[in-house]
Amino acid sequence: MADIQPFRAVRYNPDVAGDVSLHVCPPFDVITPQLQQDLYARSPYNIVRLELARRGLAADPYELAAETAQSWTDSGVLKHEEAPSIYVAEEDFEYRGKKMKRRGFIAAVRLEDYDQEVVLPHEGTRSEWVADRVKLMGAAQSNYSPLLVIYRDDLRSSVGNLVRAIAGGEPTMVFTPPDMPQLRLWRVSDPGTISVIQATLKESEIFIADGHHRYEAALRYRSGVRAEREVGHDESINFRMMLMVSFDEQGLITRGYHRLAEGTTDDEFASLIDSIEATCELEEWTPAADKSVAQQIEEFSIALGEREAGEVTFGLYAKEAGKFHIARMKSPPPAENALENSEYSQLHSYVIRPAFSAEREEQVINPYHDAGLIARQVASGAARMAFIMRPVPLREFISIVTRGWRLPAKATNFYPKPPAGAVIQQFGDRL
After folding, report:
1. How far apart are alpha carbons 404 and 414 in whole angstroms?
2. In which element (H, E) is residue 73 found?
3. Cα(111)–Cα(216) distance, integer angstroms
4. How big is the CA angle at 152 (ends 147 and 153), to the nearest 5 degrees?
5. Per-residue confidence of the chain (431 residues) as pLDDT tens digits?
6. Domain spanning 4-253+416-426 has what CATH number?
7. How many angstroms separate the CA atoms of 429 and 431, rounded?
């Protein structure tokens, strides 16, 4: 049973912090070193100083994040809400030249082990990323970015209609960051409104769209605390802040999550090329000459098109050849289900894994969604090759998740990602 609750959030105080739009940032796992620098320069109160403690500059970056958060609280930059609330969220963004809108609501959702089949994952995780989030939670006693999850509404779309009605009023806060979607928030404290949402969704499954590492970190952190002391039923560490979006929402977009071969030895790269040639037929793709490489990569991803039945296709880009190639698996192994048939599963199982051990694969095959970063990594020689991937279709995502299957880590790229810093969940005796 899904337990959805309001919580006393911490938010930026514009009277002290100034323009709140300058303070939000993407979640930790998509912030490049260059973007981190840009965000630091943008504002002395940008939440990247807390969200990305992993890449801090101190000997103990997690404690530095905690100290920074405390100083912002003491100075009034951050303040607690007076009453437990949920937050209706509306994001405006552009995708492939079209203006889009996505609505949902941010609430605290009780942590459930996966075997309870209330919160359902669909991707694997990397242990170092989970450990990083556990350390930050332990030091800062906070979560700075909501997970993106998907729920099924009832037949009358009761929650979706309620969310849309609330979003028709004057927002509590508006964020217009220069390089992220516009975000509007409506704080909802009315018990009657909240109870409608709770009652409607209490039997709904919750599908993790983005945030597997953060969810598993929350489970692990809770287990660690439970091992040391008794944890009250309503303590905030039993809950995780999430942005909940309906399956029926039109602005629910999936994009490809690409792979870079970084730090491979010459022998490893030769083995990877052999594996590609043994399993795939290659077709050259010619990009528009007047576009940057980043733009060419974006167009290449689109050019891969919709997947044909039984086809396993991905793109290749490498500096050595200076060309793009479409790779089609010659004889894809028979697949009995959507998980086995996924291009991400096929790529990792039959193309990458023959060239690397599982441990080595995790070290040198890294997921990225940013075309500009991919172009720079290949141009600099830091990456030998990029695998350009098509998005997992939403129908395939549903088929995989509802059966309890797991894709490789970072296979789905839901867009946009909810920002860090708009609403903060701070731990305490109660929500």
Report:
1. 19
2. helix 61-74
3. 10
4. 115
5. 899 999 999 999 999 999 999 999 999 988 888 899 999 999 999 999 999 876 656 678 899 999 999 999 999 999 999 999 999 999 999 988 899 999 999 999 999 999 999 999 888 888 889 999 999 999 999 999 999 999 989 888 899 999 999 999 999 999 999 989 999 999 999 999 999 999 999 999 999 999 999 999 999 999 999 999 999 999 999 999 999 999 888 888 888 889 999 989 999 999 999 999 999 999 999 988 888 998 999 889 888 877 676 688 899 998 766 789 999 999 877 766 667 778 888 898 899 999 999 889 988 999 888 888 899 999 999 999 999 998 887 777 877 777 777 777 788 888 899 999 999 999 988 88
6. 3.90.1530.10
7. 7
Helix (H, G, I), strand (E, B) or coil at 194: helix
Selected from 3.30.70, 3.30.1760, 2.60.40, 3.30.1600, the CATH number assigned to the domain covering 257-390 reads 3.30.1760
- Where are the chain's structural domains? 4-253+416-426, 257-390
Residues 188 and 104: their CA atoms lie apart, in Å, by: 13
| Nearest to 57, CA basis, from 68, 73, 45 | 68
117 in Cβ contact with 208 (< 8 Å) = no
Distance CA 146, CA 132 (A): 16
Token digits of residue 254: 């999936």
Q: Mutual orientation of helices 127-140 and 61-74 as an angle, nearest 10°? A: 40
Give the integer Cα–Cα distance in Å for 73 and 79.
6
- Alpha-carbon distance of 405 to 234, in angstroms, equals 31
- Are 356 and 365 in contact by the 8 Å Cβ rule? The answer is yes
Nearest to 44 by CA among 76, 74, 17: 17
Long-range contacts of 219-222 (CB under 8 A, 24+ apart): 219/111, 219/113, 220/130, 220/134, 221/134, 221/137, 221/138, 222/111
Give the bridge partners for 415, in sequence order. 253
What pTM, to 2 d.p., does this model score?
Answer: 0.85
Q: What is the dihedral of CA 215, 219, 221, 224, to 10 degrees?
A: -170
